[in-house]
Amino acid sequence: MEASVQEATKGFSRRAAEELSLRRGEPDWVREMRLSAWDTYEAIPMPKRTDEEWRRTDIRRVPIDDVVPFTELRDKAGSRQDLPARVLSALSTGVEDSGLNVQVDSSPVYTEVQPGISEQGVIFTDLQSALEHYPDLVRTYLFGAVPVDDNKFAALNAAFWSGGTFLYVPSGVEIEVPFRNVVYNETPGASVFSHTLVVAEDEASVVLVDHWSSAEGEDLSLSCNVIEVHVGEAAQVRYIQLQDWGRNMWSFNTQKAHCAQDAQVNFLNVALGGKFSRSNIAGILNGAGSLAEMLGIYFADENQHIDHLTRQEHVSPYATSDLLIKGALKDRSRTVYSGLIKVHPHAQRTDAYQSNRNLVLSRNARADTIPNLEIGANDVRCTHGATVSQVEEEYIFYLMSRGITRTEAIKLIVDGFFDEVIERVPVEEVQEFVREAIARKIGL
Predict the structure, then answer these.
(1) Which residues are 257's β-sheet partners?
(2) What pairs with residue 209 in β-bridges?
(3) Which of 39, 191, 246, 427 has fewest C-beta within 10 Å?
(4) Could you tell me the pTM of the whole model?
(5) For residue range 274-301, what is the model confidence (pLDDT) as tens digits?
């Protein structure tokens, strides 16, 4: 019976959204929100190549009608050792964390919080459990940073999110050791709709590392995730996303932070996997003196398509944004970057920087980069730049003349290229993960 129900809901529909809510036992207001989000999804046209933001990205083959919108709930794991082997491999041994949350397909399967964390008023759990135990708190912030109508795929997430992560840090609490969230797609042909909600109240501080991965398979899968970050006055949130999906995954990601006065958000987005990956990343500087650091690394190979759309939005004066995204690509892969610095009329004394650098490792790979400025104030400092370049053969020859192979020489060059970004992330396990992934992409 379960299998037939799952087969009947293959593809997305209003009925499937309602069925998901009923199976999760959600309150009426959540079900109504899902159904309203579905109506919004249907009202927003599917992006086309004639749309400026999608002109270089073709999604006509996205398997929107061929995947299961949600899978049946799994039993909870009793301990870390009971988690799937692939999940355990993503957890670096000997690395300290403040808490761990694990989602497999549509199910939250494990949550652990270290002793002493909850006593400080910190909440770290899956979003569905947070709805049950902290409904008023979740309702206050859910879809506040990423509105349901932000884009078509954000609306689809609002209708079908399942599992997810809720991290709340009360005023004045500082947690230095990172929290970790692992999302694993175990069932090819199924979708993953995670929703991450981070709230740091005034003068709070927290770090969250989000790791996404999946099993390989012939059936295409769909990931449509949303990350909302609310940063209170003089608070700091560091959010790190490690995307390492299998090659059967189509991935859409919407990520936004809203920063109050003197708040600071630090983003790192690492995109490595997937057949197709599209990320919308934005820092909204609502408060005077706020800061958004937006770092990124992507490495595409074979026939991967990786697309980033970023937005640095300065609403208030005296705010700073600093964006540095670097990418490498080889084989027949394609990458697209489009960024916008937008300064509102009253956002005087804005200081904004935007840079996208690309290293092309084969003749058949292609990188497009389009930086943009939209300035509405007259006392600002805004700088942007973009480069696309190939590795100079003389550099490779110089290194090979020192007795190393060509592959190792290329790895050294790529390591040095990315190091400017890696060294700005003070989380050692993340640095190691990125360097190991670079070696794997190079072929070592």
Answers:
(1) 229, 283
(2) 180, 240
(3) 39
(4) 0.95
(5) 999 999 999 999 999 999 999 999 999 9
- Give the residue from 254, 251, 262, 310 showing the smallest Cα distance to 286: 262
Question: If 0-12 CB within 10 Å is exposed, 13-18 middle and 19+ buried, where does residue 133 land?
Answer: exposed
Sequence letter at residue 190:
A
Cβ contact 126:90 at 8 Å: no
Quote the tokens at residue 12.
């997305």
Q: What is the pLDDT of residues 106-150, one digit of tens each?
A: 999 999 999 999 999 999 999 999 999 999 999 999 999 999 999
- Token code pair at residue 25: 């036992």
Tokens 């079908």 correspond to 160
Whole-angstrom distance, CA of residue 149 vs CA of residue 43 = 9
What is the dihedral angle through the alpha carbons of 327, 328, 331, 336, rounded to the nearest 10 degrees? 20
